[in-house]
From TrEMBL:
<dbReference type="Pfam" id="PF13259">
    <property type="entry name" value="clamp_Gag1-like"/>
</dbReference>
<protein>
    <recommendedName>
        <fullName>Gag1-like clamp domain-containing protein</fullName>
    </recommendedName>
</protein>
<feature type="region of interest" description="Disordered">
    <location>
        <begin position="1"/>
        <end position="30"/>
    </location>
</feature>
<feature type="domain" description="Gag1-like clamp">
    <location>
        <begin position="25"/>
        <end position="107"/>
    </location>
</feature>
<dbReference type="InterPro" id="IPR025124">
    <property type="entry name" value="Gag1-like_clamp"/>
</dbReference>
Length: 107
């Protein structure tokens, strides 16, 4: 018996050079199961359900900033009144970074 993993030479008397086992092996290779990641498929389906179809969403035009460009940090914090409109986080971050640049607090 060979240790290197090769097939035993039991088909040496076969004139075709191959054995019936070779034919079975070839057909078995064609029937190899392909791995299907069902968890990934499920994840994409749930994500699409939650996010929705991007092609069907209407593209919103960028809206005008809620805060004026002349608003100061003191004006923003001087009142305990709530803002008239919600201020998007990105707009607030831009505002604060600009203020911090002016005051030398952000490099």
């Amino acid at each position: 018996m060979e240790i290197n993993g090769s097939k035993p030479h039991s088909d040496e008397n076969n004139p075709s050079g191959g054995s019936n086992n070779d034919i079975k092996d070839n057909s078995a290779e064609k029937n190899i199961n392909i791995f299907v990641n069902h968890a990934e498929i499920s994840w994409h389906e749930r994500r699409n359900h939650w996010v929705g179809d991007e092609s069907k969403k209407s593209r919103k035009a960028p809206r005008e900033p809620i805060m004026s460009w002349t608003t100061t940090y003191e004006e923003l914090l001087s009142s305990n009144e709530p803002f008239h409109q919600r201020i998007p986080l990105a707009e607030m971050v831009d505002f604060l970074v600009d203020i911090w640049h002016e005051e030398g607090l952000y490099d």
